[in-house]
Each structure stands twice: as structure tokens, then as C-alpha cells.
Amino acid sequence: MNIILRSAKVISSQSPFHNKTVDILIANGLIKKIAASITNEEKIEEITLENLHVSEGWFDSSVSLGEPGFEDRETIANGLLVAAKSGFSAIALQPNSFPVIDNQSQVNFVRNKSLGFATQLYPIGTLTKEAAGHDMAELFDMTKAGAIAFGDYNKSIANANLLKIALQYVQDFDSLVITFPQDEKIRGNGVANEGIVSTGLGLKGIPNLAEELQIARNLFLLEYTGGKLHIPTISTAKSVALIKEAKAKGLNVSCSVSVHHLALTDEKLEGFDTRFKVAPPLRTEVDRQALLEGILDDTIDMITSDHNPIDIEHKKMEFDMAKNGTIGLESAFGVLMTILPLEKIIEKLTVGKEVFKIERDIIQEGSKVNMTLFSPEGSGVFTKASILSKSKNSAFLGQKTSGKVYGVINQGKITLA
């Protein structure tokens, strides 16, 4: 693969060409030359795109695909194509397939299925066998097979001693524990944020306390054990404060927030639209503003689409019975551009690689090519025509967007939208 990218503005704080508009010569998967202008003496292919910007390839720390077992929701092949066209050159795959990814053979299966695509797939293994929350899964064996972290997707670990042992055990091979923050007893049968909206709609509420109490407990365990803990998709103002305090104490804790929690609130539930039923639930404007502040002051380490395709049979039903989840890869960048500064978005879509121990490829001569191509200009509306996933359960239909993703260059391949 030999190409020249013309007039590309580099947005990458680690690159010596940050904020410079340059031509980039790519040959055999490497960046051969970066200059203000490159002559094309060998007549190789050129890519010229309107207002082209490039950054280090984006990473999404929470993507569900379905395969194996739920191929009707999404396949690995189409999911990786969607990710690439959405600007993500790497994704962490959640283990909530059927069967779940709780052993070495399942890790090998999804990794083999992901070969040959521009977007790299990094499996997350379950923390417990069958994600049942009782017995620890084969963590070391899965690490050897390529699992980058361990957590039961959207399931909290009720057994504090099990989590304590896991945090201690993974230190032997420098891995990462992920714990979804929700006290199941306090959540009860709740389906929406506990507050004015849920009360008015007659929906059973999930109080902020369900998340915050679990985070506080897990941080106490981390302080006791050491190790590394990742708290995914936080949703409340108090959660941000708790994690900020823990970081100030020197605890090795990271966290993420989903695009939908940064952009939407529980007021979207007024029409009982199940596209907005997610876990954790959409919270209030006060919480949303605190999450945005947590991004800006770097308390929150990364942003995820928390892409979770659900088949229509489990979404088009009464609110109480519908499954949690929204797709989010296709809409992530466009929605984020309406609420955050560009450089902060790029930072939060790339720095998560360090938490998950994924190699970062700097935009400089001699480096491996791993780039996202995009434009920050232009505006639009996210519609069904924008959806590339097999499932269509997007919470962002009708949402205003800004900017445009062109695609990715990675693994010696170019995938353009």
C-alpha cells in the first residue's frame, strides 16, 4: 500500500506535526515522509479529501457485537467494518456473546474472526465463569490468548471478596479488572433514573446511589489490594467526585463515560422510547454537566460509544421489558463534535490505549501507520441512512451532528466511509 495523503492537518498532541497541515507519504504500512509538499515522482495513488484532518487511530473501550451466538444483532466482520468507517482503528470487544468469552478458546475464536480488517479487535474476557458472578474465570489463560482486561459486561460483582482476590491475582500478570458500578439490590426492578421524569412516567427508578455506593466500595477494595481498576460508563456527578478523590490519593483507577450520557438526559424518556433505555440509565442535566466537566479536567479518562446492538424483538416492546443498549459507533464523533472541543475529543478517543496497554502509533516519519481520517467541519442530522450496523437501535436518530469521518488507515489497509 503506497499512497500520499494531501493537505492533511495533524491533530495529535504527541506528534511533532501537531496542528500542522502536511502531505504524508505512506509505503508498506509505514509513514515514509511528512512534509509541507511531497512530489509524486512515482505516480502513486493520492488521497485528497475536503478539509482533511488526521489523528492517531481512535480506540473504543466498550463495543458489543454479538458473534458468536447473536449474529442476528451483529457479526464480527460487519462490526469491524462499521468501526473502521466510524473512525475507530481499534475496539475492545465486550464478552457478552453466547457463549460468553470466559476461556481461552473463546478468546482465540473472536481474535481469529477479526483477522484481515483495518480495525483491530482486542477481546475483554469475563471476570467470572459464564459471567455469573460466582467463580473467577480462567484469567491467566485468557491473557495468554490475548485478552486485554476482565469484566462481566453490565453486571456488577456483588461478592466483594471475589473482586478483592481478582484485583490481587491480576497483578501477577499486570492485567486490568473492569467492574460495572451498580448495586443490584438498590437498583431492584428499576428501569430509568430515579427522579422527576421517572415519577411522572410511572417508571420504577434507579437512584444515583446504586452506582455511587458500588464505586465507593470498589475504590476501598482497590486501596486495600493495589492493582488496576477500570470503572466503565459512569453516569452521575457524585461518581465523578469519588473517582477524582481516588486519583488524588494515588489509586490506579481509570474510568470512561459513554457518548449518550454526555449528550442526552432522562428527559428523552417522555415518549417511552426504548431506544433510550440504557445501562446505566440516562441521568439529569446536572449529572450530564458534571460528566462534561470530568472530561475537561481529565478526571474521566476516555469516552466510549458503548456500542450495544439489540435486535428489534428485544427493543420494540414495552419499556419495562425491553433490553438495555444503544448502538453508537456511527454517531460517536458527530455527536461529540456538538458538545466538546476537537482536541479534547481526539485525546479521549486515543489515550485509553495506555490504560488497556495497547501500542500507540505516533504520527511521525518511520512510525507504523494507524490513522483516523476526518473533517471537523460541516453539520447534519443522524438518520437511519447513517446506520451501518445490522441492528438499528440508535438513541441518536434525529440528533444534530457536526463534522465527518472519512475512515481509517491501519494494518496495511484503507477503509473509507
Automatic annotation (TrEMBL):
The keyword rRNA-binding does not apply. InterPro entries: DHOase, DHOase/Allantoinase_Hydrolase, DHOase_cat, Metal-dep_hydrolase_composite, Metal_Hydrolase. Residues 57-237 form the Dihydroorotase catalytic domain. Keywords: Pyrimidine biosynthesis. Gene3D superfamilies: Metal-dependent hydrolases (3.20.20.140), Urease, subunit C, domain 1 (2.30.40.10). It comes from the Bacteria. Pfam families: DHOase. This is Dihydroorotase. It comes from Flavobacterium kayseriense.
